[in-house]
Amino acid sequence: MPEKKKILIIGVNGFIGSYLTEKLLSFNEYEIYGLDRDSYRIAHLTDDSNFIFLQDDIIRSWDWIENKIKKCDIIIPLAAIAMPKYYIENPIKVFEIDFEYNLEIIKMVVKYGKYLIFPSTSEVYGKSNTDYFHEDTTDFVVGPIINTRWIYSTIKQLLDRVIYSYSLHGGLKFCCFRPFNWIGPKLDSIEYAKTGCSRVTNSFLMNLLLKKPIKIVGDGRQGRCFTDIKDGVDCLIQIIMNTEMCNQQFFNIGNPDNYLTVYELAIKCIELFKKHPEIPKDLKQAAKFEFVSSDEYYGKGYEDIFYRKPSIDKVKAILMWSPVIGIDKSLNNSIDYLFSEWNKMNDQKI
Ligand code: UDP
């Protein structure tokens, strides 16, 4: 039997890490080393003999990380804070984890000559106003320093530039991917979704289950392309299987056909919620939305991104990958998941 490829995933319990690990393990061709301080998304995978998991904080695990970077072929550092609410509440924490920790990891990957697959973000394009964002030609446009929302965008932008420079001058082989609003079950923890401050699809659906009005920030005309996590992870698998072809590439991974304004998304969530066969009638009757200002919702320091749509020409041409899952299907999957979690929560209360 050929030796299994070894992959290190830091932040393995995250939304992307957990789906990616599950999919990789299903091939029985990879040995996955995973680190995370939590395990609620991957608890069902920890018995797999191809999965070696350490539950701990990065700060206490530097020796483990270095040892595994030495051992593995591909390093995927996914540990990061990627929620706009935090960019306002705790930008320093975002800087420490997203920038400082990840820079340390990137340097080790360079030192040991391993292949890096790194999450960039659609946020790097900021307020660019071209119809489609292209990886290698679109300018990045961000707002002033007092709007700390941009800390995440600029951290990721600098890391992209550092990674690219290491590839030019330090021999690093890498592929950076930019997720465009990946969604699906388990996006944010149910506890976090309950606060009403998680990412938009979860926040909307959780509010409906809690009989609270959906909160549309601003006038709701801002738009996003929502991408199913399964489509996103399929693309990551293609990258993992074709590392040489993807070397030195930045890829948008998004679904340009799933473009909706936030207002349209609110209407769609309510519509699908009301059609769902198992949701109780009183919840359906209570489903409504309201508009709130961004100051009220996020606090000072927020600035919205009005428009965001990826060009996926490059990833299509190199990897023959295209997204196939429509927005209704993704939202229905999320409703199913949140509804079952909501039932469990209520059972525990009894
Ligand atoms: N948003 C909203 N209500 C919510 C959560 C988010 O109207 O309860 C808006 C937010 O202001 C932004 C969009 O939905 O315009 C997407 O927000 P999200 O946090 O999901 O991610 P982003 O794409 O901004 O990183």
Give the radius of gyration: 20 Å
Biggest sheet character: 7 strands, parallel
Strand fraction band? Answer: 15-25%
Q: Which hetero ligands occur in this complex?
A: uridine-5'-diphosphate
The spatial strand order of the largest sheet comes to 3-2-1-4-5-6-11
* Termini separation: 52 Å
Q: What low-confidence regions span 5 or more consecutive residues with pLDDT below 50? A: none
Q: Assign an overall shape.
A: globular
Number of continuous helical runs: 14
- Give the class from helix and strand content and strand pairing: alpha/beta
Integer average pLDDT: 95
Percent of residues in helices comes to 40-55%
What's the total number of strands? 13
The sequence of SSEs as H and E is EHEEHEHHEHEEHHEEEHHEEHHEHHH
Task: Record keyword descriptors for this entry.
single chain, 350 residues, alpha/beta, seven-stranded parallel β-sheet, two-stranded parallel ribbon, 14 helices, 13 strands, 16% strand, globular, binds uridine-5'-diphosphate
